[in-house]
Design brief:
7-stranded mixed β-sheet, 4-stranded antiparallel β-sheet
């Protein structure tokens, strides 16, 4: 299993970024996927999850209405569209593969993570 994130960088408050996660080494369309983040000095936290088909998604309250998770099973790629970014969104963002087709709201049940892409929100 290989998960490679991209699209991070520096954004101003109120700005947008789109993260991508290229997946390989497993049947991408058979598993739920998720995004997590870890800010410096803090524990990793669940950001958003999406079911195998893309029909069901869950987001943490801290990003609800601002971040949108999506997937393209034909391209084996997971996305996170981030809008109205805030300084508290600054973190290393990871994509992760679920153990299951369906994902839940708690961010549990994931078995592989990528190396992460840094997002910094600052003026």
């Amino acid at each position: 299993v290989q998960l490679v994130e991209s699209g991070g960088g520096l954004a101003q408050p109120g700005g947008s970024l789109r993260l991508s996660c290229a997946a390989s080494g497993f049947s991408f369309s058979s598993y739920g996927m998720g995004w997590f983040r870890q800010a410096s000095g803090k524990e990793r936290e669940f950001v958003a999850g999406i079911n195998w088909s893309g029909a069901g998604t869950y987001s943490a309250n801290s990003v609800k209405g601002r971040f949108t998770i999506s997937r393209d099973n034909a391209k084996n790629t997971l996305y996170l569209q981030m809008t109205n970014l805030k300084p508290e969104d600054t973190a290393l963002y990871y994509c992760a593969k679920s153990l299951y087709k369906m994902v839940g709201r708690t961010g549990t049940g994931y078995d592989y993570w990528g190396q992460g892409t840094q997002v910094t929100v600052s003026s």
